[in-house]
TrEMBL record:
Gene Ontology biological-process entries: cell adhesion mediated by integrin; cell-matrix adhesion; integrin-mediated signaling pathway; leukocyte cell-cell adhesion; neutrophil chemotaxis
Family: Belongs to the integrin beta chain family.
GO cellular component, one term: focal adhesion
Taxonomy, superkingdom: Eukaryota
Membrane-topology annotation of the record: Single-pass type I membrane protein
Organism of this sequence: Cyprinus carpio (Common carp)
Subcellular location: Cell membrane
Protein name per its UniProtKB record: Integrin beta
Sequence intervals crossing the membrane: 691-717
GO molecular function terms noted in the UniProt entry: amyloid-beta binding; integrin binding; metal ion binding; protein kinase binding
Length: 756
């Protein structure tokens, strides 16, 4: 156990001090202050002789390790660290004037980007006072509940005093806004909204504060006894209106330095921001106390607050709400509780007979949960928490501990980070539901403390002062050592002389001194050079990971190639042997670059021989062959004019042999051409199709298909008739075998003389 505590303490010490071995990502750095602001890994060397002639002051800024490696004495390295001072640090104690949080006020001097972690201790004190404000829904459906609440004052105080020696209770009530559609605005209904005429009923209202917090249980009982039920129209109530006023009216309610509990008793849901539009209320809730004669005066003028507004105000005032609701509303208020930190939900019995036990259980649950939080933080400040709740429990990356008993101390590691330089700021940190807070004062360390002598220094030619190792020249002087006297020219005109085409001063590779560039060293230790430091001999094009391909020298950023080589990186040998075929370079269809053919458009291949898109000679001359041999084709009437380049010849090049189809006949002509002659080899005309065979075959096929279809139809009809005949025969045989008796007839003698 002791080892674990020691290890945790060592880790916290290291985190608090933030030992940095990171790289220094410096941007534009001219002074020690610029360097410190560049990042937590940067340090500054104030040694007067640290920089070489022409070297920029930014070389003084780097990580401490690099500065030491370059020869800067450790005593001359400026590397500000975070600082932590406890302004108020009273020990934790219980009893009268208890102290539950330690320390109470601190001062943090933080370097931007460098976090600092400190410990915050909390211990629940025995006998810490409790204030409980009972906020009740007095709509007509809560009639039975009101009767029970009238008698719970002394019982509730008795139970709370078992936990703490100092408990107070107060009472308030609510219904809803007295506007349609929430409430019947008929004058008689406003005065008496209850449906039972014999029932005591008070006029409709939004919220009314009945009894400030008091230790007198009898007074609570008598004041609540005077309350009567009221009524409204729609089911949701003005609960959030009432909670907001109970939270912001601190003096009127009488909230003290105590654990503050707000009990909301209701059997229905709640209206929220935006619902006021139903009654043409467009003014948002202003989150301020508006009690006049203990009644909410802005009920009909301001919209309902949002859940977020209510949650924020409850947190600001350290009020912990307890939602005592009926079973049917449990789900609704459970979801609401998730949006409000340090809140609890309990289910009321039908007549609220269990409300005392409900409140006590909720209080025990809420008070045993410790959630460390902070108020709205100043800009550029961030805070994180790590909790160490009890012995043996693994620290958690959340500012929360559960089941914290009275007298149990818990520890939170609080990490504060400032992202950039800011003015002095303050904020509060503390456990939700408790009034005690830690005040954190934050300042940023963005300046260097170099202990310089404020007078002219020999290092600056007596024309300036030394500030953290660099010269701060007097007016009229410039330079690394203030060696340049400006004279009639101003600083801007001198710097303009160091800019090429109005670009960067000395191309960013040197310092402008007296209107001339003093160039810096390159990465390889050589100097940049040129009028504007635009040249160096280390940054030329590479080929095969070699500068100038190893066949040249780098001069002012460009390769100067050795004899026999060329190209931007000297990567090409001066030869065209690989481009030649039969002594012709690239078939005269391209040029030889780096001993390789670069073909003209349309040609490809190692020697530009291939032309995928070019037509063959026979294809190009097909129309001329047709007109010269047969007098047909596109050039029929202008054969001589268009085909002067082609004539009959005996010499045949077999590689140009091709078959062409004549345009006006179904014949093929075979020809063999050279580039300027052709030889007609013959005419091949394929036989035409046998029309009679085609027509006869088609008719026979149609007749065969038709006959097959008729046979199929005949077969289907025959099968159907056969089934019907068999059924008929079956019925007829059944009639023959049936036995039936002849009908009985009765004859009646008709008396004589009767007329039919």
């Amino acid at each position: 156990m002791l080892q674990a505590v020691c290890l945790r303490g060592l880790l916290l010490l290291l985190v608090g001090r933030q030992v940095y071995t990171e790289q220094c990502l410096k941007a534009s750095v001219n002074t020690c202050g610029d360097c410190i602001k560049s990042g937590p890994g940067c340090a500054w060397c104030k040694d007067l002789n640290f920089t070489k002639t022409g070297e920029q002051e930014a070389a003084r800024c780097d990580t401490p390790a690099v500065l030491k490696e370059k020869g800067c004495p450790p005593t001359d390295i400026i590397n500000p660290k975070n600082d932590f001072i406890k302004i108020s640090n009273k020990p934790l104690k219980a009893g009268e004037n208890p102290v539950q949080i330690q320390p109470q006020e601190i001062q943090l001097d933080l370097r931007p980007g460098m976090p600092y972690t400190f410990q915050l201790h909390f211990k629940r004190a025995q006998g810490y006072p409790v204030d409980l404000y009972y906020l009740m829904d007095l709509s007509y459906s809560m009639k039975d509940d009101l009767e029970n609440v009238k008698n719970l004052g002394n019982d509730l105080l008795k139970e709370l005093n078992k936990i703490t020696g100092s408990a107070r209770i107060g009472f308030g009530s609510f219904v809803d806004k007295t506007l349609l559609p929430y409430t019947d605005t008929n004058e008689a209904k406003l005065k008496r909204p209850c449906s039972d005429k014999n029932e005591p009923c008070q006029p409709a209202f939004g919220f009314q504060h009945v009894l400030p917090l008091t230790k007198d249980g009898d007074k609570f009982k008598s004041m609540v006894a005077e309350q009567h039920i009221s009524g409204n129209l729609d089911p949701p109530e003005g609960s959030l209106d009432a909670i907001m006023q109970a939270a912001v009216c601190v003096n009127e309610i009488g909230w003290g330095n105590s654990t503050r509990l707000l009990v909301l008793a209701t059997d229905d849901g709640f209206h929220m921001a935006g619902d006021g539009k139903l009654a043409a209320i467009l003014e948002p809730n202003r989150e301020t106390c508006q009690l006049v004669d203990r009644k909410y005066s802005k009920s009909t003028l301001w919209d309902y607050p949002s859940v977020g507004q209510v949650a924020r105000k409850l947190e600001e005032q350290n009020i912990q709400p307890i939602f005592a609701v009926t079973k049917k509303m449990e789900t609704v208020y459970t979801e609401l509780s998730k949006l409000i930190p340090k809140s609890a939900v309990g289910v009321l019995s039908e007549d609220s007979g269990n409300v005392v036990n409900l409140i006590v259980d909720a209080y025990n649950s809420l008070s045993s949960e410790v959630i460390m939080a902070h108020e709205a933080l100043p800009e550029f400040i961030s805070v994180k928490y790590t909790s160490d709740c009890k012995d043996g429990e693994k620290p958690s990356d959340r500012g929360k501990c559960d089941n914290v008993n009275i007298g149990t101390e818990v520890v939170f590691d609080v990490t504060v980070t400032v992202d950039r330089c800011i003015n002095s700021q303050s904020f509060l940190i503390g456990p939700l539901g408790f009034n005690e807070k830690l005040k954190v004062n934050v300042r940023t360390r963005c300046d260097c403390e170099c202990d310089d002598i404020n007078q002219p220094h020999p290092h600056c030619k007596e024309k300036g002062k030394v500030v953290c190792g660099s010269c701060r020249c007097d007016p009229g002087f410039l330079g690394q050592h203030c060696e340049c006297q400006v004279g009639q020219k101003d600083v801007a005109s001198l710097k303009a002389q160091c800019q090429k085409d109005n670009g960067t001063e000395c191309e960013g590779k040197g310092d402008c001194v007296c209107g001339r560039c003093q160039c810096h060293l390159t990465e390889g230790g050589n100097n940049f050079y040129g009028e504007f430091c635009e040249c160096d001999d280390e940054h030329c094009e590479k080929y095969a990971n070699k500068q100038c391909a190893g066949h040249g020298k780098c001069k002012c950023g460009r390769c100067e190639c050795n004899e026999g080589y060329e190209g931007a990186a000297c990567q090409c040998a001066k030869s065209d042997e690989d481009c030649k075929i039969d002594g012709i370079v690239c078939h005269e269809r391209g040029k030889c670059v780096c001993n390789q053919c670069e073909c003209q458009r349309g040609y490809k291949g190692p020697s530009c021989k291939v032309c995928p898109t070019c037509q063959r000679p026979c294809q190009e001359s097909g129309s001329c062959v047709e007109c010269l041999a047969f007098g047909t084709g596109p050039f029929e009437k202008s054969c001589v004019e268009n085909c002067k380049h082609l004539q009959h010849g005996e010499e045949i090049m077999s590689e140009f042999s091709k078959m062409f189809q004549l345009q006006k006949a179904s014949c093929l002509t075979q020809q063999k051409l050279k580039l300027s002659t052709f030889t007609f080899l013959g005419l091949e005309c394929p036989e035409g199709p046998n029309i009679a065979a085609i027509v006869g075959g088609s008719i026979a096929a149609v007749a065969l298909i038709g006959l097959l279809i008729l046979l199929i139809i005949k077969g289907v009809l025959y099968a159907s008739d056969l089934r019907e005949w068999k059924r008929f025969e079956k019925d007829r045989k059944h009639e023959k075998t049936s036995v039936s008796s002849p009908p009985n007839f009765t004859f009646t003698k008709v008396p004589s003389g009767s007329h039919l």
